[in-house]
Design goal:
- The protein has 728 residues and is α/β, with parallel strands linked by helices.
- The chain folds into three domains: 142 residues, Cysteine proteinases (Cathepsin B, Chain A, Alpha-Beta Complex), CATH 3.90.70; 310 residues, ABC transporter transmembrane region fold (Up-down Bundle), CATH 1.20.1560; 231 residues, P-loop containing nucleotide triphosphate hydrolases (Rossmann fold), CATH 3.40.50.
- The strands form four sheets. It has a seven-stranded mixed beta sheet with strand order 12-15-16-9-17-19-18.
- Helix 7 packs parallel to helix 11, helix 11 runs antiparallel to helix 12 and helix 14 packs antiparallel against helix 15.
- One of its GO terms (molecular function) is ATP hydrolysis activity.
- Pfam families: ABC_membrane, ABC_tran.
- Its main location: membrane.
Amino acid sequence: MTGGRESPSSHRRRIAERDFVWAVASLCNLFRIPFDAALLTGQHPPPYDQAMLLAALHDLGFKTATLPVRAGGFDKTRIPFPAIAISRAEASGRSGNDSDQRSVEPIGALALLVKSDEQRLLFFIPESDTPQIVSHQEWTERFEGIIVISRAEETDDEESTQSNFGFRWFIPELLKYRAIWRDVLIASLVIQIIGLATPLCTQVVIDKVVVHQTRSTLDVVVMALVLFTIFSGVMTWLRQYLIIHTGNRLDAVLGSRVLSRLLRLPMTYFENRPTGTLVARLHGVETIREFITGAAVSIVLDLPFLFVFLAVMFAYSWQLTLIAVSILAIIALISLAVRPLFREHLNRQFLQGAKSQSFLTEYISGMETVKSLQMEPTLERRYGDLLAAYLASGFSTRQLANTYNVIANALEQTMTLGILFIGATLVMRNDGFTVGMLVAFQMFAGRLSQPVLRLVGLWQEFQQANIAVRRLGDIMNAPGEPYSLTPSRDGNAKGHIEILDVSFRYSTHHPFLYRNLNLELLPGKITVLKGPSGSGKSTLAKLLQGFYQPTEGSIKLDGVDIRHMSANELRASLGIVPQETTLFSGTIYENLHLANPHATFQEVVKACELAEIHDFIKQLPKGYQTTVGEHGVGLSGGQKQRLAIARALLKKPRILIFDEATSNLDQATAEAFAKTVNSFKSTVTTMFITHAEPATLDSDAMIVLTTANRQQSIATRDGNEGQTEMEL
């Protein structure tokens, strides 16, 4: 289903958060789809607009399209009710969290369209259970925005039917802009007609004007050529503008799809690939855009017109046409012959570039270790070797392209000389082949050979784009984690964790880390998990987050196997305070707000007060607007850990996991940190992973993991109530 053209600003017009949730919840209720507002807003954070609404409906299994509300008419036959309408009217009294939505666009009001007859329309609006009935005319006056048409999708699994990512992915995206491609095709037709007329005008000047000395005819022909040149330049500019504009749209779609897919891949994907390699693959989006918006599309559009020029040339002289076609055929054969070499050289160049970038990314992120161990000379030498290999592969690729271009250009020159020699012979025979025809034929041959020669250079760009597509395919075709807006359990989350007969190993080549592990974390209790290094404490935390799946057994959250839960639903219940707190470039407020984009400033302050970091932040010159670097420069280990606690609390989790959170703290700071953890008792389930339990921590149970026997998990009481020792 397709709609009409819509205003460019319609996708940017804000929607109040409460209206956004109401609209999605209403459709889910009508179609009997389980709905959870927390999952919806967690996966689709503010600001909200039409594009976000369409994305949310798509995630819930709806197909959507848009239609404009046109003044003077309301075509109910085009609207499968129910539908959601967005107006240009400014919503009042529905602020939600819109104070955080920094936009100058007005807020679009929403309405749920339910039914319509020939004259009237029935609809609902947010915060009202009473339907409203208005005439079509009154509707078009009150609502002048976009109608979002929605219907439940068929019960098909999009992931299972989705084909592998490749160049075919671009076909449906390109077909979305049929009107633009029609305009581009018309511009190409005009350009080629002008290209056909120019040699003919030149022939007229040589054979008629010069011979008969008709100045008036010369003025007319030259004026026509000037107009043709100007008009051709305008059409060429317009065609390239449309191509570039469409290419940017495709770039935006592809870039967002790639990042969305990358963010939904499991942790094992990132653990098995260097960061620099992933960054290099993401740069492939730019390579593909440059290929699409470059000469590729224009050459493809120009190729069909080559047959027109070929037919005209054949009408002039079949002998000269045979020369041109033979030389161009040789160039095409050479192009096919070097195709495997180009692919091999470009692939090697990409791999060397990825290694170089991965090396820089890895060691720059660990610069503190580099400097402390005085690794600079070694790294300089190693990077020099990588850079030399990359430059050598690039030089080899460019030399191959250079050799190919020289041969192709030499053959083109041979074609020109051959046409000149044979053409001059035909002219001297005085069999009707004139000098003007020879010059025109040379111009036609140039119009025929230039696209073919441009294909030579385009072939290298195509190979680069092909490699980029295949590298991106490694991301797009990789199986992702399950994400869903449909909850798998009721909204009464307790934070009860059961680990039942869990066995785990990283792969078939690794030994079992656990065998038949049985644990239970009771709601509202603090459970301490102790053990030596290598006993699997942090791995257990990753299992709880769904980063790994148990090899055997199951883990249940509130009675539901986490295998049956989507990743976003599972992690929405968890707040993690890791051993090394990662802060991102930006202010303290921005780092905290990332955990919950819906949180107000008061909620951020409240979380910091609970984490006992608010007083410190207030003492900073810029308070919450203080800028911190990627590694939290200027903050102590304890301060960063408390920021991590505040960030975890902003998620409002039912379970808090502290993974070696006190390992880098001194004793006094660790004791104070433990008192902060005690304040969460009875409100959230807490797992405190540590080597040494702080004396001030008021734990309810202690589990000790040992490595006495990795083949069997044995639960024994050590004589202290509430403490269980697990031998692994």
